[in-house]
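User: Hey, quick favor. My workstation is busy. Could you predict this chain's structure for me?
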Amino acid sequence: MNLSMHSVLVFVPDLDCARRFYEQTLGLILGREGEGFLLFQGDNFQLAVFLGKRESLSTEYSQDAGSSIAFAAPDLGEAVAKLLAKDVRFLHDSPNEGPIGRYMAFLNPFGTVHELIEVKDSQSRRQYLTPGENSSSMARENDGQK
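Assistant: No problem, here it is.
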């Protein structure tokens, strides 16, 4: 089976509020909308937002089973400052360091966790292989071979 990412889905109880958040706060481009959904275009991804009935119920992020959308930020500090200026609520007071890079989790207006991540190096890039790449080709690249 050869799978590729098509889109990320988010369910929200208020599409107007979601549109303002994803379009104005995060800067995504609204590509299409219809009854009960919004489709945003990002760099190499689509974010589909569907009308749901209630806010997120998760109370223990990273302890409860679930998913998170990680948005790549070339400069984490700058991205965080811009979102803080727009009153976005972060779950951490300072960046955390993970195996892929530095990150900070934040909430959309409905309590769904998203993250900003600043990827630290090409080795961490293995988590984000492009079509046709595999871990052995990345290993050769990191060893100076091609």
